[in-house]
Design goal:
The structure holds 2 protein chains of 2 kinds. Helix content of chain A is about 55%, strand content about 10%. Chain A is mainly alpha-helical. Chain B is about 40% helix and about 20% strand. Chain B has helices at about 15-20, 35-40, 45-55, 75-85, 115-135, 155-165, 175-185, 190-195, 225-235, 255-275; strands spanning about 5-10, 30-35, 55-60, 90-95, 100, 105-110, 140, 145-150, 170-175, 200-205, 210, 215, 245. Classes of the chains: A mainly alpha, B alpha/beta.
């Protein structure tokens, strides 16, 4: 079925706003005020990248700080040009931004050497997702003690289990007024993190050892407690420490 | 008789800390941007529900795309319905415009041509929306920076006819009426006078920016004096209509925003007192 007149106009408007002015739209309108029709269409075209860049800046604020205005806006322009927004919610925009930074092309074209930046973006996306997640009332210390049997399956409540080849948590926390160049010592090395809510909406972070991360990953994947601890290599002292923290943070819920 | 000055402000995250202290305020109600809460179960929703304990709240959407030929995005109405069920809002509103296509949301309030085809599209989408939400919505007139050569009626005629045909109500944005009137050369006074009172569910007031060649609806400042005058004219004819101060960019301190609400309430009271008994 051929498109209706309204459908053709709306398609032309979307093309004009997101890509380049469409001649059929420019011909179909008159400009407001003393704008020409092309200038009027351009008002809408200029607003689109500005809104999406603003949304990216809100989610990836630490990346913005690292890159500075000029480079961050240049990266955003390149990303927005190839990535339409499909959600009704602007805060959903940018899910693939970390991968875009990670493929290196956009940063290399700017002469930016920041191998940790994609990981920092992944951290920020995970933080944003957790920010909007419902807090989960986790098991109390007594309930966790009762539930912690080798065959029990414990799941994380509102939490994000993260693992990066670069250290990014310190960069994210970095004082906003600290404009000193980022030293290699600040990002070199692997990092494993747990972001979590403890019953309410504030978000906490805990750095994890490799065995702790392995144990929590196995539990999240549905393994039993016994299997998870065995696979992780956590020793007895480490297990006690992890569960003391989990009890206090009310980290776990029991699998249904 | 209804209260002459039922004035609210837009709920913005910059004011969360202040508002959670439960300050004494003359602001009577709040308006929340629906999309900011539809996808969140975290802090934003927590704050909204806390505010709702003390105040009426209206839900104001920006992505319904009621004039879009594709209609609302898949899942949008279901999410909005869930939010409505939790908030029990005073009003549910959106804009008489389209916001893009499903494959590419422009996140802007794009004007419609004022044609029969657009009217039918709006009526179809409003019917679907009101059925899904189980309630009547109100649609806001938007500011525009271009006009379609093929329009068959005026903006006001289109707004009123869209509401009449679809059975929705009108959110009369006085600032938008002023901005579009100046941009397109029609009378803002005739516009606000010509919207039937029984259709108006709410009034919006905001600030525009003069870009030299055109007026731009930025919501980045207080309403200008000509907009206050136009509001006075509107509220004289529409006493008791809920009034909302919008300020979305360069959001000021709470007290500055509250002062705008106080001014809107005072004007409503003054106009009420002028009315014959």
């Amino acid at each position: 079925m051929s498109a209706s007149r309204l459908e053709r106009l709306q398609r032309a408007f979307v093309r004009s706003a997101t890509f380049a002015p469409d001649a059929s739209l420019v011909a179909a309108v008159t400009g407001g005020g003393t704008l020409s029709s092309a200038e009027a269409v351009d008002v809408y075209r200029r607003g689109y990248p500005a809104r999406l860049t603003s949304a990216l800046g809100e989610t990836f604020e630490a990346c913005w700080r690292v890159l500075g205005d000029e480079d961050f806006f240049a990266v955003c322009r390149a990303y927005v040009a190839r990535t339409p927004s499909r959600s009704h919610d602007l805060s959903d925009y940018g899910e693939t931004f970390p991968g875009f930074l990670g493929d290196g092309t956009a940063l290399a074209s700017l002469g930016v050497d920041a191998p940790y930046l994609a990981d920092l973006a992944r951290f920020e996306w995970a933080f944003k997702e957790l920010f909007h997640a419902a807090p989960v009332p986790g098991l109390s210390p007594a309930a966790l003690a009762a539930a912690a049997r080798p065959d029990s399956r414990l799941l994380l409540g509102a939490a994000a289990l993260l693992s990066f080849p670069h250290r990014v948590y310190g960069l994210w926390k970095r004082d906003r007024k600290n404009d000193a160049p980022i030293a290699e010592a600040e990002w070199r090395g692997e990092e494993r993190l747990l972001l979590y809510k403890s019953g309410g909406n504030p978000i906490f972070a805990r750095e994890l050892s490799a065995p702790e991360h392995a144990a929590l990953s196995a539990l999240s994947a549905g393994r039993t407690l016994g299997e998870a601890l065995e696979a992780s290599g956590l020793d007895e002292a480490g297990t006690k420490e992890l569960f003391a923290f989990a009890a206090e943070a009310r980290l776990f819920r029991e699998a249904a | 008789m209804a209260d002459a000055a039922f004035v609210g402000v837009g709920l913005r995250s910059a004011h969360y800390p202040r508002l959670l202290e439960r300050p004494r305020t003359k602001v009577r109600w709040f308006e929340a941007i629906s999309e900011n809460y539809m996808g969140s179960e975290g802090r934003p929703l927590e704050v909204l529900l806390k505010m709702r304990e003390d105040y009426p709240v209206a839900l104001h959407g920006v992505s319904l795309s009621v004039g879009g030929v594709e209609g609302p995005r898949p899942g949008y109405l279901e999410r909005l319905r869930r939010l409505i069920d939790r908030v029990d809002p005073l009003l549910v509103t959106d804009h008489l415009c389209f916001t893009g296509a499903h494959a590419s949301n422009v996140h802007d309030l794009l004007p419609l041509p004022y044609t029969e085809e657009a009217l039918k599209t709006v009526a179809r989408n409003v019917a679907r929306t009101q059925e899904a939400l189980g309630r009547t919505i109100a649609l806001e007139n938007v500011s525009s920076y271009l006009a379609y050569r093929e329009s068959e009626m005026s903006e006001r005629e289109f707004l009123v006819e869209a509401a009449r045909r679809s059975g929705c109500r009108i959110l009369l944005d006085v600032n938008n009426a002023y901005v579009s009137a100046k941009n397109h050369g029609f009378s803002a006074e005739e516009y606000v006078d010509g919207v039937p009172a029984e259709l108006v569910a709410q009034i919006h007031l905001g600030g525009y920016t003069d870009m030299g060649k055109f007026l731009f609806d930025t919501h980045s400042r207080a309403p200008t004096e000509p907009v206050w005058e136009l509001y006075r004219r509107a509220i004289a004819r529409l006493p008791g209509t809920p009034v909302l101060i919008e300020w979305d960019e360069d959001v000021p301190e709470w007290e500055t925003l509250e002062a705008q609400a106080v001014r809107a309430a005072r004007i409503a009271e003054e106009e009420r007192e002028r009315q014959p008994a």
